[in-house]
Amino acid sequence: MSEMKFQSTETAWCPGCGNFDILQTLVGVLNDLAFAPEEVLLVGGIGQAAKLNQYVNANGFSGLHGRSLPAAVAAKMVNQNLKVIVNSGDGDSYGEGGNHFLHNIRRNVDIAHFVHDNQIYGLTKGQTSPTSDPCSDTNAGACNLNKPFQPLLVALAAGATFVARSFSGNKEHMARMMKAAILHKGYALVDILQPCVSFNKVNTFAYYREHTYELEAEYDPTDIKAAVLRSMEFGAKIPIGILYQAQAPTFHQRRPEIFDETPMIDKHPAPDKLEALLRQYA
Ligand SMILES: Cc1ncc(C[n+]2csc(CCOP(=O)(O)OP(=O)(O)O)c2C)c(N)n1
Ligand code: SF4
Ligand SMILES: [Mg+2]
């Protein structure tokens, strides 16, 4: 048996939280893909999901709430050899981080973005998030008086080259989605339905098990129109799988004059040249 390089540590999540399955699956995927911990950077913003990077023995960075993507993109700019993976919440990624979500999709930087979508603000004790279900007579919890945000539809509209959804209660499926996203060249979104057992009493493990279905074997993930239609299915039936995948030049590939073989962190400009450059801005 090969040595398990990535390991998880003790967490501060509630017993039964869907985040545990995501953590365990990600650790398994990183071991299967045979990365070394020093080759991987796990980034989060603020929230329960965003704490994941603190529980794995890889490089980690916790940014501000809503700012996980800028931190991840910045890291990739200075070291394109890092495998950069964002784990953050629906509030962090789609709410306060919504602007970064839109415009970093357009940049197509080669990072994987795993959104732990519990349809609620978990860390701050259960307020409505952009993806909370609409309010109804039977919805007694946090619910959306506004139109719920449709992350997969928005990602497709912004030009994402990898758009997928999974469910934390289906670990085999989640592992497949994570692997494909990590290996995809370009920005890859996996919206992971993740029960928050403490504050979301509607979107539970049983709820997602009942409402999710896997995309059919004959589904064509290169068909953008089919992907748009499936991305809007979120209610009685919720498709899980790779809705869309395409190849397009990444941010780095479009700028070969900046991103050559040597990552920026390994480029050491001569001190006199650097000083001369800085003097121009003094
Ligand atoms: C700039 C800023 N705005 C708001 C907050 C308060 N805050 C912290 S976590 C959070 C929401 C977390 O929800 P989500 O991103 O979905 O993560 P979860 O806890 O559900 O995993 C909010 C509003 C903050 N810490 N910083
Ligand atoms: S509050 Fe919800 S999301 Fe946060 S650890 Fe507890 S169960 Fe998980
Ligand atoms: Mg959340």
Radius of gyration: 19 Å
Question: Which superfamily, in CATH terms, is the homologous superfamily?
Answer: Thiamin diphosphate (ThDP)-binding fold, Pyr/PP domains
The termini sit apart by 58 Å
Helix content: 25-40%
Low-confidence stretches: none
Largest sheet: 8 strands, mixed
Element order: H for helix, E for strand: HEEHEHHEHEHEHEHEH
What does the average pLDDT come to? Answer: 96
State which percent range the strand residues make up.
Answer: 15-25%
The CATH architecture assignment turns out to be: 3-Layer(aba) Sandwich
- The fold-level CATH name is Rossmann fold
Please identify the oligomeric state.
single chain
Structural class: alpha/beta
Annotation, overall tally of beta strands: 8
CATH class: Alpha Beta
Name the shape in a single word: globular
When the domains are counted, the total is: 1
Number of helical stretches of at least 4 residues: 9
Bound molecules: thiamine diphosphate, iron/sulfur cluster, magnesium ion
| Sequence of strands across the biggest β-sheet | 2-1-3-4-6-5-8-7
